[in-house]
Amino acid sequence: MTGYSNRYEAFMGMAPRDIPHWEHWSCPDAATYITGIDYYSQPKSCMKKLNQMYPKLSLGVPESDEPRPRPEEQADKGKGRWGDGYRDYWQQEKAGCRFSSREEMLKFSPLEQGDFSGWNVVVDGDFSSEDVIYRRYRKKYDESWGDAAPEGSTASVSFYNTMFMWPLLVFGYENFLQICLEPEFERIMDEFAEINRRVFRAFARLPVNFAVCHDDIVLSSGPVCSPKWMHRFIFPRYEEFWGILKDAGKEVIFMVDGCVDAFVDDVMACGARGIISEPFTNYRAIRPIIHDFFEMGADILNPIQVRAEGMNVEELAHEYRGKIAFYGGVDTQELLVSGPEKSIRDEVRRLFEIFGLQGGFILSGSQGLLEDIPYGHAVAMLEENLRCFVK
Asked: Are 352 and 19 in contact (CB under 8 A)?
């Protein structure tokens, strides 16, 4: 197992020598503060230095140092800021006016369309055949790997439209709700499913060990559609698609926004090895059935939202050591926002002492590094994790 990455070992419930750290990073200003290199003047140098300082993060690096306009130099287009720029549109605004009538939507054929390049459906591209999809994605991986990722690596592929997102992004949320119970809608979903069979057959051929499958099947308050509708149109497809991946030796991690507690057991039963979700999920309700997740084959629980009722990390670590991996742990609602830095460092050390020797833990903010977290507090978490390793 000497070639296994620490993230892989944590995913699979093993005990890496140090604690992996994985963050959703979308704050260039924090990168400037930490590295001392102005991101907007030298974006590549800035992110390269950040990775050198904190290699556990493995963050993306821009291709060049071509300067980027600062937010104050950009026109605020009224759609909010994302990363180093402002959005110029909402995806749903475009989707909501794509079709002129209800009748036109119900006549739409995803298979006849095939090529969704320029459609603003997040995964824009040509889906007309499995080979076309395979060639597009295969370019992202080292040619020397052939058909298999390095053993013990977390090489992965991700897909935003596992099933539920296709009609939401093509028709728009409100239009989807108006047509999703119509008899004609079944044909549309069958055709989206055929497109995704091509996708997942292509993914099964890629040199990856994990597939991160995203679908926002819930809101912050709970499900969008009824369990009956989900069991008709969504969950059977998950089981089919993920079966294709699992037969090829890939592990599936499901990613979803919102409160997913109503459907967690269904997702795990379909073959997911873990779930990445938001802290809207009621962990007090879910904790009694974490054992059931393990029996279904789960390897990862994320996030460990430490302020959620029933989410006691000491008890979880003791009860599920060596059986399931935990991802999260540092409170982003109060601790990382308010500090002080010593308390943040103490918390990282406490988590290391709880999980470090038994494995199966990936450190991160419980909700990722958000804009309201002072840069110095983020640095305290990053630096303290570098000091934690099994001797």
From this structure: yes
Q: Which of 333, 253, 332, 288 has the alpha carbon at shortest distance from 10?
A: 253
DSSP 55: G
Q: What are the tokens at 262?
A: 């109503």
The answer to whether the CB of 355 falls within 8 A of the CB of 10 is no
Residue at token pair 């600062």: 70
Is the pLDDT at 99 greater than 80? The verdict is yes
Residue 218: its H or E element: strand 218-219
DSSP 143: G
* Separation CA 163–CA 385 (nearest Å): 37
Task: Quote the Cα angle for 354-359-364, to 5°.
Answer: 70
* Residue with tokens 């873990």, as numbered in its chain: 274
Instruction: Please state the φ and ψ torsions of residue 259, each to the nearest 5 degrees.
Output: -95, 105
Domain that holds residue 178: 90-281
Q: Are 359 and 16 in contact (CB under 8 A)?
A: yes
Look up the pTM and report it.
0.77
What does the block give as tokens for 181? 């119970």
Residue 150 placed within a domain? yes
| 82-104 b/e (C-beta count within 10 Å ≥ 16 → b) | eebebeeeebbeebeebbeeeee
The CATH number for 95's domain is: 3.20.20.210
Residue 357 lies in a domain: no
Model confidence band, residue 391 (pLDDT cutoffs 50, 70, 90) = very low
- Provide the residue type at 376 as one letter: G
Q: Is residue 314 part of a domain?
A: no
Question: Phi, psi (5° rounding) for residue 108?
Answer: -65, 140
The bridge status of strand 218-219 relative to strand 222-223 is antiparallel
Q: Which long-range contacts (CB under 8 A, 24 or more apart) does 334-337 make?
A: 334/307, 336/365, 336/369, 336/373, 336/377, 336/378, 336/381, 337/372, 337/373, 337/374, 337/377
User: CA 152, CA 142: separation in Å to the nearest integer?
Assistant: 16
Q: Tell me the three state secondary structure of residue 149.
A: coil
327-352 pLDDT tens trace: 666 766 778 888 899 998 888 888 77
Residue of 378, 239, 271, 253 lying closest to 327 (CA atoms): 253
In a domain, 154, yes or no: yes
* Terminal-to-terminal C-alpha distance of the chain: 18
Q: Give the total number of structural domains in the chain.
A: 1
User: Is the distance from CB of 386 to CB of 57 less than 8 angstroms?
Assistant: no
Separation between Cα atoms, residue 282 and residue 302, nearest integer Å:
12
